[in-house]
Design goal:
Layout (H helix, E strand, L loop, with lengths): L8 H18 L9 H4 L17 H4 L21 E2 L4 H13 L3 E5 L15 E5 L6 E7 L2 E8 L4 H10 L2 E2 L12 H7 L16 E7 L5 E5 L3 H4 L1 H7 L8 E8 L1 E2 L2 E10 H5 L3 H5 L5 E7 L4 E10 L8 E3 L8 H15 L2 H17 L3 E4 L8 E5 L1 E5 H5 L3 H7 L5 E9 L3 H15 L8 E7 L20 E10 L6 H9 L2 H11 L3 E2 L6 H4 L2 H6 L1 H14 L8 H5 L11 H6 L26 E7 L1 H7 L10 H6 L5 E5 L5 E3 L26 E10 L4 E6 L15 E7 L2 E7 L8 E6 L4 E10 L8 E3 L2 E6 L7 E2 L5 E3 L7
Parallel strand pairs: 1-3, 2-3
Antiparallel strand pairs: 4-5, 5-9, 6-10, 7-8, 7-9, 11-13, 11-17, 12-13, 12-19, 14-15, 15-16, 18-20, 18-21, 19-20, 22-23, 22-25, 24-31, 25-30, 25-34, 26-29, 26-32, 27-28, 27-30, 32-33
Helix pairs in contact: 1-11, 1-12, 8-20, 11-12
Length: 796
């Protein structure tokens, strides 16, 4: 039943103010006028606009200590230590350091998943794969002529482009959005779309290199583990991060091919009628189908393998990136926010979305190969290279589209059940006048695989190997400022009812990387999936019996480690875990310098009452390294395990709100004292390349007000690379230097705090990153084990 005629987003913006009053009246729990819809995601935490780490984590959460989902409104994790190893050898070292110190491990990639599956327990450290990006050569392996071994942090689009340049592909198993890491895609059973073969990336895995809780690297493969222990092998291929840290994955390949893509439209009546779905996708190898229920129409991309040449080497699919005007871009997110609270506006935006697809066909030829190359022409029929026709380049998506969060419900069911499911959905959509303004109801296709254990397309009771499958997905805008009641009423409705019905009445297996958490805890789902979960738990008992890699999400979903809660540090590292020769809090078996105190050497200069009351927080007292060091006369000093990263409103630096470790003792500043602190350490570069260092003291400018009457700076080998605060000249939040692997460098962090600090708080957030051959944006927190505390001795 068509509900609203299509219109332009500009007109929708005009309707915006008219419909807001009705929206607010519809439900007070729905914040249609939330300023966050306009202010959030501008990379500035606007406290004066009400932004904070809870309601706008995109701007306000600390990326150096908090893991955020790609859709950050959906999940932002509690602060935790974050490691970013530069190599697999360093990954092993980091896991040894974490586990031997009694912490659990949470593997992390691009965190495209939407639930707390991305978060570790309270006693866990996060280990990211973002620097593990090496792609090996195409080579034979076991029974396969062409395979490639890739590190876990490689993103799908980068792999696609790399393989295509060598004449290879991993087929229709590539995800539609290319900015997902290979390790994360395998862990959750991510997929593309195909009516002819498995479209789940896990089906392409022929070997995995996994780092266990003991830090050892073990290779599992189809020809070894798959023969000796097929249950373990099938579990590893969709592992949820529970069976160790997947460092590398070897994928089977096929020759690169071309795809002839066609845009099709089908009216809803035909689509819903018996046989409608099968008729719509007939003759397609690849399908991306979007059903817009408020417009009574279905759009799909139908792709077929072809031996015909490409129409252009720059042909590509830009389905998700319609060309929006400046006005449309400005009003897109506020319009979606209002539409969340008003069905009329929601349906108007849905109609606009479909009109844009008709007016701007998504199959395009660009001017060149670059992701942001201008569009030269648009087509409804186009032949292009497979990787460009089925995988969206993330740079294009992020550059061209307004950014916001969304809630995605998805699961797979047999093709034989999809028509009945569509007829059920149609009845709910018509009953509740449902419109879906983002992308409609999505269908992609797959085949069941008996070599997988818990992926949504795995062959299971009643579903034979090779049986056609459908991935059915519902995508809703996740608005700002919602309380639990508002989330339930305006995002979850009617999808809680729909998903529960699909689970109870169809063989619907939810996608591990999507959905809301309640889906995986449905009693009927857990009862039906108990055999697979039981088999997976056998694999956990083999590879992670102490639950080093477990978290609350997986435990709530039924996955269990037999010795969860046991002393895994002692079990894996023995007496070594209890030895700490240099008393720095890091066990000898994990300490990079077991006989030297890891951390920083800290000096605090307490300026006293008179000096403190009138002290100047200006950076002008530290114009060069000698002047800065000269500020510290009768200083207090000690080795520090932690404390260089802090945020406190207490001006007494011995207060517990500062995380000095060990705590400062003796005489201390009080509310009317100014003080300054200098941290010094030796940094040994783990790899050759470009390193960037940053600092943040909460000051947005350089005046006495915007500079917070304070100063913070970073020095490498006594040369300043970053400085922020009052009279910073120039203001440089970060700076970069070249370093050589194995060489030592002096690192100094300087912070000066005046008691009349305008923001009434003392802040220090030093960061770093490794950019390889180029600069990077420092967001990684400093790790104690990367530094050796040193005063001014010898050549240091």
């Amino acid at each position: 039943m068509k509900r609203v005629p299509s219109t332009s987003l500009a007109l929708a913006a005009g309707l915006f103010s008219v419909l807001l009053v009705g929206a607010e009246a519809q439900a007070q729990s729905c914040p249609a006028l939330s300023t966050l819809a306009s202010s959030c995601r501008n990379n500035d935490c606007d406290a004066e606009l009400g932004e904070n780490a809870q309601n706008c984590p995109e701007d306000c959460a600390d990326p150096g200590s908090q893991l955020m989902a790609y859709y950050a409104q959906g999940m932002t994790c509690a602060p935790a230590p974050i490691y970013e190893p530069l190599s697999i050898a360093e990954l092993q070292d980091d896991i040894r350091a974490v586990v031997s110190s009694g912490l659990k491990v949470k593997p992390a990639g691009t965190s495209h998943s939407a639930t707390s599956i991305i978060c570790g327990d309270n006693d866990a450290a996060v280990v990211r794969s973002n620097h593990l990006t090496h792609i090996g050569p195409v080579e034979a392996f076991e029974s396969y002529s062409h395979t490639v071994n890739v590190e876990a942090g490689v993103e799908i689009n980068d792999l696609q482009e790399h393989l295509a340049a060598q004449g290879f592909s991993h087929g229709f198993g590539a995800t539609g959005f290319g900015g997902i890491s290979v390790g994360g895609a395998i862990a959750t059973g991510a997929h593309g779309s195909s009516l002819q073969s498995s479209a789940t990336i896990s089906s392409a895995v022929v070997a995995l290199d996994v780092v266990g809780p003991d830090g050892q690297l073990t290779t599992y493969s189809e020809g070894t583990t798959g023969v000796s222990d097929p249950n373990l092998w099938s579990a590893l291929k969709t592992n949820l991060g529970l069976l160790g840290y997947v460092a590398r994955a070897r994928l089977k390949l096929e020759p690169q091919f071309n795809v002839a893509m066609e845009v099709r439209y089908v009216d809803e009546t035909t689509f819903v009628a018996n046989g409608g779905v099968a008729a719509a996708v007939a003759g397609c190898d690849y399908v991306f189908l979007t059903w817009f229920p408020g417009q009574d129409e279905v759009q799909l991309l139908c792709g077929a393998r072809t031996d015909n040449p490409v129409d252009s080497p720059y042909a590509q699919n830009q389905l998700f990136t319609p060309n929006l005007s400046g006005l449309e871009t400005t009003f897109a997110v506020p319009g979606l926010q209002a539409g969340m609270c008003n069905k009329g506006l929601q349906c108007t935006v849905e109609g606009t979305r479909l009109s844009l697809y008709r007016d701007q066909p998504p199959l395009v030829v660009t001017q060149g190969p670059e992701p942001l190359s201008p569009v030269v022409s648009r087509h409804t029929v186009l032949t292009g290279p497979s990787h460009r026709m089925i995988t969206l380049q993330p740079e294009k998506f992020l550059d061209n589209q307004p950014s916001f969060s969304q809630l995605e419900y998805e699961g797979a069911l047999p093709f034989s059940q999809i028509q009945a499911a569509v007829q059920y959905l149609d009845s709910i959509y018509n009953r509740d006048d449902i419109c879906q303004p983002l992308i409609g109801t999505i269908m992609r296709f797959d085949t069941a695989d008996d070599g997988l254990l818990i992926s949504s397309n795995h062959a299971r009771n009643g579903i034979a190997h090779g049986e056609p499958m459908v991935h059915l997905e519902f995508v809703e805008y996740w608005g700002y400022g919602l309380d639990e009641a508002g989330l339930e009423a305006h995002v979850n409705t009617p999808y809680r009812e729909i998903i529960t019905h699909l689970v109870d009445n169809y063989d619907y297996w939810p996608h591990w990387g999507k959905n809301d958490e309640w889906v995986f805890e449905l009693p009927s789902l857990q009862a039906r999936n108990a055999p697979e979960v039981g088999n997976f738990n056998q694999a956990i008992a083999q590879l992670d019996p102490y639950g080093v890699f477990s978290n609350s999400f997986t435990r709530n979903a039924g996955f269990a480690s037999p010795q969860e809660g046991g002393d895994f540090a002692q079990a894996y590292y023995g007496p070594c875990a209890a030895l700490d020769s240099d008393a720095d809090g890091i066990s000898d078996c994990a300490d990079k310098a077991p006989n030297q105190f890891s951390g920083m050497y800290a000096r605090i200069d307490d300026l006293g009452f008179g000096d403190g009351f009138f002290a100047d927080g200006s950076c002008g007292v530290a114009d060069d390294w000698n002047e800065m060091k000269g500020n510290f006369g009768a200083e207090q000093e000690q080795n520090m395990r932690a404390g260089w990263d802090y945020e406190s409103e207490n001006h007494t630096y011995t207060a517990g709100t500062f995380n000095w470790s060990p705590a400062w003792s003796g005489n201390a500043g009080n509310w009317n004292r100014s003080w300054e602190v200098m941290f010094s350490a030796e940094f040994v570069a783990p790899a050759t390349g470009r390193y960037c260092f940053g600092t943040d003291n909460g000051s947005p400018g350089t005046s006495i007000i915007t500079g917070r009457n304070s100063c913070s700076s970073v020095w490498i080998n006594k040369a300043q690379v970053a400085e922020v605060g009052y009279n910073a000249s120039p203001r440089r939040p970060s700076g970069c230097v070249d370093m050589v692997a194995g060489q030592s460098y002096r690192y100094d962090l300087y912070n000066r705090h005046h008691n009349a600090n305008v923001s009434n708080s003392f802040v220090s957030h030093p960061t770093w990153c490794f950019g390889g051959s180029g600069d990077c944006v420092p967001q990684q927190a400093l790790d104690q084990n990367d530094f050796i505390a040193k005063p001014d001795t010898g050549n240091f």
